[in-house]
């Protein structure tokens, strides 16, 4: 091959390369831009799937919470009423319903309350940023949600389990929902350890009056049916439970046939609430189900609560954490978050405890609809050195 032929081929290659760059290349082209373009269809698919399954996830949360509450009533109340009624009435029932009340309220508010839209023209006078996606004024700390396709005030993230964005006006509800779910799961684990140990480790049936433990050699005879079925202790115990619990004839127990009594106790078959047939394998399955859900939820949401608690202590949202972290790495000097007022003050602002007549005991430990500090548009009050509140 001669040098002339090589030159011609190189010239054609350079021309082809120049032609390709002319069509597809510009000064803004980079590998990061190329990768963003390639994964854009994936983000589009995830955003639209999340938008459609949001209601299903909310329904799933409601179903799981309701199912666990029903199981706790079917197993926990009869067992603790038999073993320790004072503990049940004085502690377990009040604490359990307090957790359920706060969990239900904060979850409903997190789903219902909007994080806040930057739609007030009077409060947008100081806005200097325009959203690139919805081409509308964007206040400080506001961000665009690609799932909801709009900007929200002080946006933290989009939560599919709430089917809602978490922002300025519902951030507290989101965090307290996680906290009370974790507290509720730990409460059920602590209360259910003894029940699971008796049923699964000791192989001792835990439901009183239905699964009474019998000696292995015991077999009732035909003339002992009246003594067993009509024993005063059995009738008194069942009548006490039916008078205390908010339903009648909770425990349906055979009275006439001693053979039925024997089969009921040995085979673990009985009728529980509203005539639902319950067997020993069903009790074991309910214990495993509650344990699996509670342990898994405690670990997952416990880690999430700690992480969000650290962000709140620093005065950051989830989006600001990633932005500030990038600025800390890119800048040669130490980056200081302008919205960080110190750990105590950050928690007061987040919980709204620096407002008048708002206290931790009344408005955090119990349901409250008080608004957070500020309007979500202006944050100039953050730079004022306000005294610490005594409400915390």
Detailed description of the structure:
- By secondary structure, the protein is mainly alpha-helical.
- It contains eleven helices and eight strands.
- Strands 1-2 form a two-stranded antiparallel ribbon. A two-stranded antiparallel ribbon has the order 3-4.
- A hairpin with a 6-residue loop joins β1 (129-130) and β2.
- α2 (31-83) packs antiparallel against α3 and α4 (171-201) packs antiparallel against α8 (280-314).
- Residues 208-274 and 385-392 have low confidence and may be disordered.
Key words describing this protein structure:
two-stranded antiparallel sheet, extended, 8 strands, disordered C terminus, 392 residues, mainly alpha
In terms of DSSP E residues, the strand content is 5-15%
Strand order of the largest sheet: 1-2
- The 3D shape can be described as extended
What integer is the average pLDDT? 76
User: What percent of the residues sit in helical stretches (DSSP H or I)?
Assistant: 55-70%
| Structural class by helix and strand composition | mainly alpha
Number of helical segments?
11
Q: Give me the count of strands.
A: 8
Concise structural overview:
The chain is mainly α and 392 residues long. The protein is built from eleven helices and eight strands. The C terminus is likely disordered.
Outline the fold blueprint:
Layout: H1 3-24, H2 31-83, H3 85-112, E1 129-130, E2 137-138, E3 143-145, E4 150-152, E5 157-159, E6 164-166, H4 171-201, H5 225-229, H6 232-244, H7 258-267, E7 269-271, E8 277-279, H8 280-314, H9 318-330, H10 343-351, H11 360-363
Antiparallel strand pairs: 1-2, 3-4, 5-6, 7-8
């Amino acid at each position: 091959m001669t040098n002339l032929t090589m030159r011609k081929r190189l010239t054609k290659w350079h021309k082809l390369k120049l032609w390709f760059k002319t069509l597809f290349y510009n000064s803004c082209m980079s590998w990061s831009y190329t990768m963003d373009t390639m994964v854009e269809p994936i983000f589009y698919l995830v955003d639209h799937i999340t938008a459609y399954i949001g209601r299903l996830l909310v329904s799933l949360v409601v179903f799981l919470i309701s199912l666990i509450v029903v199981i706790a009533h079917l197993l926990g109340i009869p067992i603790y009423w038999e073993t320790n009624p004072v503990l049940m009435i004085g502690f377990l029932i009040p604490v359990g319903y307090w957790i359920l009340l706060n969990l239900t309220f904060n979850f409903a508010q997190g789903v219902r309350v909007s994080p806040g839209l930057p739609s007030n023209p009077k409060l947008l006078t100081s806005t200097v940023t325009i959203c690139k996606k919805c081409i509308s004024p964007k206040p400080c700390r506001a961000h665009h949600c690609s799932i909801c396709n709009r900007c929200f005030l002080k946006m933290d993230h989009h939560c599919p389990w709430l089917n809602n964005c978490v922002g300025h006006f519902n951030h507290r509800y989101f965090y307290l929902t996680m906290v009370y779910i974790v507290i509720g799961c730990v409460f059920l684990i602590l209360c259910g350890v003894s029940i699971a140990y008796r049923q699964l480790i000791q192989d001792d049936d835990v439901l009183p009056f239905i699964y009474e433990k019998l000696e292995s050699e015991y077999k009732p005879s035909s003339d002992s049916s009246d003594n067993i079925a009509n024993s005063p202790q059995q009738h008194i115990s069942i009548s006490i439970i039916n008078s205390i619990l908010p339903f009648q004839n909770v425990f349906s127990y055979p009275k006439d046939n001693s053979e039925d009594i024997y089969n009921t106790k040995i085979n673990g078959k009985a009728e529980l609430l509203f005539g639902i047939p319950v067997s020993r394998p069903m009790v074991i399955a309910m214990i495993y189900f509650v344990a699996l859900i509670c342990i898994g939820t405690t670990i997952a949401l416990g880690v999430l609560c700690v992480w969000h608690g650290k962000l709140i202590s620093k005065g950051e949202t989830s989006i600001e954490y990633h932005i500030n972290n990038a600025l800390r790495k890119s800048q040669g000097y130490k980056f200081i978050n302008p919205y960080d007022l110190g750990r105590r003050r950050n928690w007061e602002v987040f919980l709204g405890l620096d407002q008048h007549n708002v206290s931790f005991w009344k408005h955090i430990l119990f349901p409250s609809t008080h608004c957070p500090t500020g309007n979500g548009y202006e944050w100039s009050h953050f730079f004022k050195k306000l005294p610490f509140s005594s409400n915390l």
